[in-house]
Amino acid sequence: MIVGPTLQSIAHHALSGPPRRRTGVELEMASVESMVGPTGSPGLDEIQRLTCTPPRASDPATANRRWMCSTAADLSGQIDGPCRSVPDGLVQGVDVLASAWMASGGPSVDGPALVGARAAAAGLGRGGATSVGGNAHLLESADGMVCLNLARPEDFAALPALVGPEAGGPLLDPMDWPAVRRALAGRTRGELVEAADLLGLPLGVPGTAPSQPLVASVGAGQGQLSSQPVVVEFGSLWAAPLCGGLLARAGCRVVKVESVHRPDGARRGPASFFASLNSAKEEVTVDLTTKVGLEQVRRLVDGADVVLEASRPRALAHWGLDAAAEAARGVVWVSITGYGRTGPRSGGVAFGDDAAVSGGLVLDEPPGFVADAVADPVTGMLAAVAVRAALDDGVGALLDLSLAGTARWLAGPT
Predict the structure, then answer these.
(1) Which helix (DSSP H) or strand (DSSP E) does residue 225 occupy?
(2) ω into residue 5 within 30 of 0, thus cis?
(3) 146 and 189 in contact (C-beta within 8 Å)?
(4) In whole angstroms, what is the distance from residue 284 CA to residue 297 CA?
(5) 167 pLDDT band (50/70/90 cuts)?
(6) CA distances from 105 to 100, 178, 384 (A)
C-alpha cells in the first residue's frame, strides 16, 4: 500500500482540478449553459433532461486526448497490452457533470482524476477481463457474457446456490475456478439474474440496467435554507461518500453515519483515498440493532436538509424511515442503488464494476472492464449535481439514482 504525501496530492488533485485539465472545457460549458436557470445554476428538471440523452462528445478526438492524459486512461485494456480508448459518452459525461457542478457554484473538480483516484491511491492497474480491484470477472454464460463480482465473503458462499450442482455431480466448490466457469456456461443470463438477485449476489448482465440514471420525484418546498445545509450521509464505499465529500467542499455540513457493527468498507482500503472522500465531514457511529440507535438515526434525519443513503427500501423500513414521506416534507433524499428503487432488478445488489457491465459500459474484442468501478464515481458526481439543483430550486425531492442506469447513460446507444 502506498502512503505519504504522494497520495494526499492525488486526492487534492482530483478534487481541486488543475487548470491544465480544462483543455477543451468550452465544449462542456456550452452544454451546461443550455440548462442553467435564472439563478445561474442548473435546475432539477434540466438535470433530468440532460440524463435522458446519452452524452456524446462534440469533438471525440479532443475528448479522448483529454481522457488519455488522465490517470483513469491507464485502467482500461489488457494487462500486457496498451491502454484502450473508452466510449466517448463516458468522457463527455464526466466532463459535462464536472462543468454542471461548477456552474452550480461547486468547487472545481477534475472528472477523469476522480474516476482514477482509487486505483492511483492503491497502486492498481488494468486487468483486462478482471476488474482493477481484482474481484469482478467477465465470464461466459450459455447465451453471452456476464460479470461475476465476488466482492464479499458471502458472495463466494452464494456461488453454489447461484449455479447449482454440475450434472450428476456434487455441489459446486466455489474455490474451484474451472468448475465455476463450466457451471456458468451451462446457465442462461436470465436464469443467473433471477438467482443472483434472490441471493443478493452482484451479477452484471448487459441489457438489464434501468433506462435512466436519475428519476426525481419532487416533494414539498423547503422554506428558507440556512447558509450551510445539513447533509446526513448513510452511504459507504464510493458513490454516496463522493457525493457527500463534494457537498462538504461546497459548504454543506455533512454528517457521516456508520454502524458500529458494519463500518464503511472503504476504511479497509487506502487511508488517503478514504480521507479524500470523508475528511471534511463529521462522523457519528450508531448501533442500529438497538432502540437507542434507531432513535438517534431518527433525530439525525429530522434535522437534515439532505439525506444520502445506498440501502434497499426494506432496510430503510427496518430503520423506521420512509424516503417518499421525507421528500414530501421538504427533504432532499438521495437513494443510490444498483438498479433503482423500482423495476425488474430493484431487489438486486450491485457494485461499480458489475453495474457498469449491466449498463453496457464494457469493452469488447477482447472483453475488458472500463476503468475502475466506473459507475461508482460518476453516479456520485451526478448525485451531487442533482442535490445542488434541488437545493437551488428550493424543493424537497426523492432522487432515485442507479449505478447501472448511470453506466447505460454513459455507454450510449447500443
Answers:
(1) none
(2) no
(3) yes
(4) 10
(5) low
(6) 9, 52, 12
